[in-house]
Design a protein that fits this description.
Helices cover 29% and strands 30% of the residues. By secondary structure, it is an alpha+beta fold. A hairpin with a 2-residue loop joins β13 and β14.
Length: 327
């Protein structure tokens, strides 16, 4: 039987971190993935302690911590992101909320605010720090924090859509409302209200999206029925894009150091994408056309070691700068 007197209730700032593209790196190079995981754990532990908090759950490629205040949790999140941008780079996204929590004698933490912070984190991209309006209200008068409204999003088990903000200081990524909608764990049957620059969020009725969903379902069925080829992009069934047209890219991938890449990973919305790069760096990729001009995480390898990991947009100009040319 639950003994409430063994619980302590307190207001806590809740911080979630999550490594971006971890699964893809693990499939490519397990040793590298483990090193990145250990670096993430060390940096989070160090920064959380520095700002008076405590790591409550370490999931390896993610973490959940509680800190005493909104100011301290934002300072901590910024310190974590800045440290992990140094070599060797570890790409993470961060979600933050502040709420009452129940803490057991063992230190285990309970509360709906934990779920909200976790869902806010899923809206992010590598290098981003996202947080709730409750956090925003407590830091908005502090000039050292630059903020921007990403949009208003419907979370599961939350009656009204919640406004989500991002740190806009130099060096931090800011997802668009569309990017957040595509990655976030949201209430699917409700409305979404992405923010436009200079305007308040505008509602989009769910029924307007129904014909699009139906069309995508039909195209997905046709896609699944097609035979696969080893030379084509390999996608997991649950994330297979519902399109048939593909843009074929080929060429030779080189880095800033002019050495050819011996491996390439394109991580689109957490998917796993294989390439056919050979030992000399010659590259062959069938890219689904729905991802044209899409923001993805590009990871290049040389002799089994990660040389470059950054976010790019899949535009012709960007890919040509990487020595990729359309065929």
């Amino acid at each position: 039987m639950l003994e409430l007197d063994k619980y302590t209730r307190k207001l806590a700032a809740i911080l979630f971190t999550d490594m971006v593209g971890y699964t893809a790196v693990m499939q490519r190079d397990e040793i590298l993935a483990i090193k990145m995981q250990k670096r993430h754990q060390y940096v989070v532990d160090t920064c959380v302690q520095q700002f008076g908090g405590e790591v409550k759950n370490d999931m390896g490629d993610g973490s959940m911590s509680v800190l005493p205040s909104a100011i301290q949790v934002i300072q901590c999140a910024m310190a974590i992101q800045q440290e992990l941008k140094k070599e060797p780079v570890v790409n993470i996204r961060v979600g933050i909320h502040i709420a009452d929590v129940l803490i057991e004698e063992s230190g285990k933490v309970h509360g709906d605010g934990i779920n909200i912070a976790s869902r806010i984190e899923t809206l992010g991209v590598a290098g981003a720090i996202l947080f709730s309006k409750e956090i925003y209200n407590k830091i908005k008068n502090h000039p050292e924090f630059k903020t921007v409204l990403v949009g208003s999003f419907p979370f599961k088990n939350v009656e009204e859509p919640m406004e989500v903000y991002a740190i806009a200081n130099e060096g931090f990524a800011i997802p668009s409302a569309q990017e957040a909608l595509s990655t976030g764990k949201l209430k699917k049957s409700n409305t979404t209200q992405p923010a436009e620059k200079g305007q308040k969020p505008i509602s989009k009725a769910w029924w307007l999206a129904a014909p699009i969903v139906l069309l995508l379902a039909i195209l997905l069925f046709k896609w699944v029925q097609q035979p696969t080829s080893a030379s084509k992009l390999s996608l997991p069934p649950e994330t297979s894009p519902a399109v048939e047209n593909k843009q074929h890219w080929t060429g030779k991938v080189a880095h800033f150091d002019s050495r050819p890449a011996s491996g390439v990973i394109l991580d689109i919305n957490g998917g796993v994408y294989k390439d056919t790069t050979d030992a000399t760096g010659h590259f062959d990729l069938y890219l689904p056309s729905m991802y044209a001009n899409e923001r993805v995480t590009l990871t290049l390898f040389y002799e089994g070691k990660m040389n470059l990991s950054r976010e790019i947009r899949l535009s012709e100009e960007v890919l040509q700068s990487l020595k990729l040319e359309p065929k």
